[in-house]
Amino acid sequence: MEAIEKNQSSLSVSDMSIMDRPLVSIVLPAFNEKETIAIMVDSLIVELRKAAFNFEIIIVDDGSTDDTFEVSKKLSSRYPFVKAIRFSRNFGKEAALLVGLKAASGEAIVSMDSDLQHPPAIIHELFKKWQEGYKVIHAVKENRDADSILQRGRASVFNLIFNWLGGINLCNSSDFMLIDRCAANVIVKTIGEKERFHRGLAHWIGFNQTTIPFRVQKRHDGSKSRFKFKALVKLALVGIISFTSVPLHLISISGLMVLVVGLVIALDAIASWAHGTTFSGYATLIMVMLIIGGFTIFSLGIIGEYIAKIYEEVKNRPVYIIESTVGVEQRWNL
Fold first, then answer.
1. Which regions of the chain does DSSP assign to beta strands (E)?
2. Is 108 left (phi over 0), alpha (psi -120 to 50) or beta?
3. What do you get for the CA distance between the two ends of the chain, in Å?
4. pTM as predicted
């Protein structure tokens, strides 16, 4: 009897120590990932069981047209700590990240891609930095070997423009990151924007931040990224317009420069007329009209993007619509 009581006591202490462990949440946005999502979850579980944390895994199906959600439901039935959310249609990765942050219960939240390009083994380094006191830890690509030359070029140009206009160095940020609960609450509860740029917001909120490098892996199924060029352009516009008004200031400066050029041409014409010389006006007039016309159209386009951003915000439509969930409590509060 004494031996049994001792065993029960030791089990009780062990159970209590497990319950006292911090809870971490892993958020996996997924779109048409039926071939990789189970492999990703299994790989994560192997790594998470090595860590001294309790954990949950939240799969956000962004309106997939394949059986991603069906696979996710099977994973949830096999592992009680796996939860799944399905959108009614494709609302985009930014919306998936937002609902993942809302659904997460952990003291720390790790967001990562579900196609195995973000290696699960790196989460230990994220946890280590978190325990050192950092609130936002970005896993930054140290290589882009898995990307084409065109993809690397696009990323470099976008990062350069965003850094110049918005003052945020995206070379040191990534969607693969760990966010402490206090930082996540700011993004979810304080910031009310509809169209979001998660990487930019994670950098903008401040707190104690750091980075760790990682090597990008190839997609497990060998396919190319499902993030289309059109979506990248839209994300770039949202990011720039959401974080800076510099393009509007550039329009003012450019308008002043055009005015100065116009005044110089006018003074040259007056001087030519005063000296009785013929002023070659046709070619100059055409050139000036083309410059002013092109500048005006371009300026209207930039202003239109900012107005469109305001229009999208004031419509107050939901960022996403949830079709179904598995294992997620308080579904309609998400």
1. 23-30, 54-61, 82-87, 108-111, 136-143, 177-180, 209-215, 322-326
2. beta
3. 50
4. 0.71
Report which of 119, 22, 108, 102 is spatially closest to residue 60, judged by C-alpha positions: 102
Following DSSP, what letter does each residue of 263-282 receive, concatenated?
HHHHHHHHHHHHTTPPP-HH
Helix axes 37-48, 68-78, angle to 10 degrees: 30
For residue 39, count CB atoms less than 10 angstroms from its CB and return exposed for 0-12, middle for 13-18, buried for 19 or more.
Answer: middle
- Buried b or exposed e, range 262-289, using 16+ CB within 10 angstroms: eeebeeeeeeeeeeeeeeeeeeeeeeee
Per-residue pLDDT tens for 28-55? 998 888 888 888 898 888 888 888 888 8
The β-bridge partners of 209 are 136
> Do the bridges between strand 177-180 and strand 136-143 make them parallel or antiparallel, or are there none, so unpaired?
antiparallel
Domains of the chain: which residue ranges?
2-244+317-333, 246-315
Output the CA torsion sign for 202, 203, 208, 211: positive
pLDDT tens, residue by residue, 218-237: 665 555 555 555 656 666 66
3-state secondary structure of 176: coil
CATH number 3.90.550.10 is the correct assignment for the domain at 2-244+317-333: yes
List 86's β-bridge partners, or say none: 61, 324
The burial of 187, by beta-carbon neighbours within 10 Å (0-12 exposed, 13-18 middle, 19 or more buried), is given as buried
Q: Looking at this protein, which amino acid is placed at residue 281?
A: G
Partners of 143 in the β-ladder: 215
**Which residues partner with 57 through β-bridges?**
26, 82
Q: Given strand 209-215, what is the order of strands in its sheet?
A: 209-215, 136-143, 177-180, 108-111, 23-30, 54-61, 82-87, 322-326
